Amino acid sequence: MATANSSAMMQLHRSERNMFSTSDDIVMMKQIQATHVPDGMGVEVNSILAVLTTIEDVLRLSTPNLPGGSQAQPDAHEEKATKGDFNDDLKRVAYSVNKISCEILCKCSGGGDALATTVAIFNILTNYSWEAKVVVALAALAMTYGEFSLVAHLDPTKPLAKLVALLKQLPDTIEREEMLKPMFDAFNNLITVMLDVTKCIIGFKKLPSQYIRPDMPTATADIPIAVYWTIRSIVACATQIAGLIEIGHEYIASTTDASELSSLAHKVSNMHSLLKKKLTVCLQLIEKQKQDELFQTIKSLFETPQVDNMKILKIFIYAKDNQPPLCFGSAERKASVDVLRGKNVLLFISDLDISHAELSVLYQKYHESRKHHQFEVVWLPVVDWSTPWDEATEKQFETNQSAMPWYSLSHPSFLDPAVIRYIKNEWRFNKKPMLVVLDPQGRVANPNALHMINIWGSRAFPFDSIREEDLWKAETWGMGLLADIIGTPVRDWTKDGKLIFLFGGEDIEWIRKFSKTVQDVAREANVTNLQMIYIGKSHPREKVHRNNTTIVAEKLSHTLQDLGLIRSFWVRLESMLLSKIQLGKAIEDDQIIREIRMMLSFDRSDQGWVVVSQGSAILAKAKGDILLRCFMEFDTWKDQVAPKGFILAMKDHLHALHSPSHYRLILPGTSEGIPQKVVCAECGCPMEKFIMYRCCND
């Protein structure tokens, strides 16, 4: 950032030297600077802006070809003219405006000396600040041009209008429109750039002094020159108006007149470009300072005990333009931040690309939990404003918003950039949805409760880290923890002590062969309590759906027909791992983490896999080819079934077949707290880390 700013500053300095270093400018500016004796009682910036707005309105109404000229609304000007404050603003500068108007009409008639007239105007404006000088001079031009335009465009069928035009000897601009067009085009263009540069000059005046730093670009030397050439251009415009008034029907617009105006427009436009670049850099640097201040304020608020959650929430969810910042469901049901006062608030943070699968799990847990507990969820949509916000993006936001049964920001623009920075830097948000829990005092009770909600649902309330620790203390590794989300029939099989084969993968030939082989062995060994269930892959697609259909048709095993439930099974497993990591548990010392890693490794492989349990106790787990081989070699270990029992005989043979193998573990790249070192769940060797890009449809 600093390098970019330095480069920009160097370019600005080069442009400045090229534009403002001529000897004529230096001599002229010494003369102009000598007239500048501000008395410290200058017109306030807000008054200057009010006057400038009126000037712009007058010039646009007088000049239909100016941008917005034909769109002017008389009612708005009439309303403004009745306001007391506005009249006071005009009164402050009225004398000078009238004096300059007389000056330019008198001295510009008959082709007076433009430089002398310009210096005379500066003498009238000697006590004004630079920005006030240019605005007052523009007001004089607006009044002069406005009067001319008003009379010239009065209805010629009315006697009074005709007589006034005759007395002023005004040309018929409508009849002579084609002849006067080059002059008026150049005139209009010059007015536009004069207004632009004036706004830029005022922009520098409005910069908050507390944020001005020595390393910012300065316009101290540029602004007086820009003011001079703007007033010089005003004199040129007044000369054209005076010429029309004085010569009347004899006036013929010359190419020289239009050329002079165009030349001035080019010069003033170049000045505007340079000033605008400098102003833009200043505004960017000031905005960065403001963002840094707000960022530090947010950090300080979270580090300081609060009476309630209002201070923090009003920074995260601030009312923009006095609009209610929240809506509930559809955008029509607006709400203020006060509805969250003193409550447990769950900040659901995501971008706009939220998958239906992710939302459906959260919807279910939300409705389940709200039946028993009081809390509020607020969606904070984090948007990358470097990409265009178009109609399609707006529609995407509105679709997500209307589908959510909780509060959301009325619009993503209500989320301040400093808040987004805090969310990314301190809470490590990076595209993947997260659910930050704030307690009634606004303290972060859990940096991401999505994991524990995916695992325990409503039992996770109040969703804080203490509750998460307590829930884990009550858990042990087994089929109850692994497959709880599946519900019946697995829950009933576990309670009844059934021999359960939980298996997955996508290869239907392996599924068919494995299922039939296990069933054949069970019959031969007289195992009557065997149950099998297929749970596919973590990203179930059409292949898993076809497998389900085949398995049911051929009566190979039980299945989960709801693909959403299959995904929830794997989401819950991943949430278990991330919950443990978030709580700071060491991978090598935690059995549940080791077992979950093995399960996730199974899912990431291209092969089938099997977990065997009796009741809740998990007896064995292995890749599918090993389990299939074990059962295909039943003849070699069936003699051990009688003395050892089926389960022990199977485990012993499976152990004999075991050979070291290696696994892949893929975690979301956006997951928080990813450990730097992970060992293989099978051989215990450190795993090598790679970067992988995977499509969401993979």
Structural topology:
Blueprint: H1 2-20, H2 23-35, H3 45-62, H4 74-81, H5 84-108, H6 114-124, H7 130-152, H8 159-168, H9 177-206, H10 222-247, H11 255-303, H12 310-316, E1 326-328, E2 334-335, E3 345-350, H13 356-370, E4 376-381, H14 391-403, E5 407-409, H15 417-425, E6 434-438, E7 444-446, H16 450-456, H17 465-473, H18 479-482, H19 490-495, E8 499-504, H20 508-524, E9 530-534, H21 542-553, E10 558-559, H22 563-582, H23 591-604, E11 609-614, E12 617-623, H24 624-632, H25 634-637, H26 641-644, H27 646-657
Parallel strand pairs: 3-4, 4-5, 8-9, 9-10
Antiparallel strand pairs: 1-2, 1-5, 3-6, 6-7, 8-11, 11-12
Helix pairs in contact: 1-11, 3-7, 3-9, 5-6, 5-7, 6-10, 7-9, 7-10, 9-10, 9-11, 10-11, 11-15, 16-22, 20-24, 22-23, 24-27
Task: Describe this structure as you would to a colleague.
- This protein has 698 residues and is of the alpha/beta class.
- It has 27 helices and twelve strands.
- A seven-stranded mixed β-sheet has the order 2-1-5-4-3-6-7, with helices on one face. A five-stranded mixed β-sheet has the order 10-9-8-11-12.
- α21 links the parallel β9 and β10.
- α7 packs parallel to α10 and α10 runs antiparallel to α11.
Can you give keywords for this protein?
7-stranded mixed sheet; alpha/beta; 5-stranded mixed sheet; elongated; disordered C terminus; 12 strands; about 700 residues
